[in-house]
Amino acid sequence: MARQSFWKGYLKLSLVTCPVAMAPAISASEKIRFHTLNRATGNRVESRYVDAGTGKPVPEDDIARGYQNGDDSFVLLDDAELDAVALQSTRTIDIEAFVPADSIAWVYYDTPHYLTPTDRVGEEAFSVIREAMAATKTGGIARLVLYRRERAVLLLPSGTGIVVWTLRYGDEVRPDDAYFASIADEKPAAKAPSLKALALVRQLIEARTVAWSPKLVRDPVEERLHDIIAAKQKGRRPASKPEPTEAKTGNVVNIMDALRRSIAQEK
């Protein structure tokens, strides 16, 4: 299959530059998408901007962006003002700094992309940057305009290529202290019951440990939708909705008894 890219530009580190191409590492093209229709006519329904006060459609030339600073007060910004704060170049990944690759928490990672060199001449510079990051176990921090928005990105070596992760901004990430602070930071006590419980949980984990496969994260809802659509296309009535399997909950007083039953069930 031919390699497709949605972005082409340059990877730059100080005076070292090489042409590169980038493609999304994930795809939603295979997902089922629905259109909004008029049930009476079967025609698609169009969406339009309507003035909330007058109820009349707004011409495209009159549509503007604004920041709300009160209940009914907005600060309007035109395209020139928004362009003034954008990056000067949208086609250069200029690595500004390096950080230890394992120092960025998972919650900052957003969307992965594959970065590859586009010619043999630039491949050597690309490979040198990639191998230097791998040797130092670091990732490169840069800024880039993607999806009509300026984003911070992290470059990490991956095999013979580089993965470019868009990163969430600091004000987008909620600190975990508000959620985890009330949980006691204690390990199971070094007592016979706790140690036995720990051993039983480890046994339960070992019983359920399997080799990683993308099939472990398949989408059963998507599969069910395909079955329903295929049945309706053939004029058949879709099968009835399967009964949900609810987890049985009870007043489990003894965790040891629950663990022993769990392991017996696994066997």
At the first level of CATH, what is the class of the domain at 7-29 and 86-172?
Mainly Beta
The fraction of residues in strands falls at 15-25%
Secondary-structure arrangement, i.e. CATH architecture of the domain at 7-29 and 86-172: Beta Barrel
Distance between the amino and carboxyl termini: 44 Å
- Average the pLDDT over all residues and give the rounded result: 83
Helix content: 25-40%
The class by helix and strand makeup works out as alpha+beta
SSE order, one letter for each helix or strand: EEEEHEEEHEEEHHHH
Major β-sheet annotation:
8 strands, mixed
Q: How many distinct helices?
A: 6
If strands are numbered along the chain, what order do they take across the biggest sheet?
5-1-2-7-10-9-8-6
The low-confidence runs, each spanning 5 or more residues with pLDDT under 50, are: none
* Rg, Cα atoms, Å: 27 Å
Shape: extended
CATH topology of the domain at 7-29 and 86-172: Ku70, Chain: A, Domain 2
Q: Quick one: how many beta strands?
A: 10
Task: Describe the fold and architecture.
- With 267 residues, the chain is an alpha+beta fold.
- Among the domains are: 7-29 and 86-172, Beta Barrel (Ku70, Chain: A, Domain 2); 188-242 and 250-266, no CATH class.
- Helices cover 26% and strands 25% of the residues.
- It has an eight-stranded mixed sheet with strand order 5-1-2-7-10-9-8-6, with helices on one face. A two-stranded antiparallel ribbon has the order 3-4.
- Helix 4 packs parallel to helix 6.
- The longest helix is centred in the middle third of the chain and has 17 residues, at 120-136.
- It starts with 6 loop residues before the first strand and ends with a helix.
- The model has no long low-confidence stretch (mean pLDDT 83).
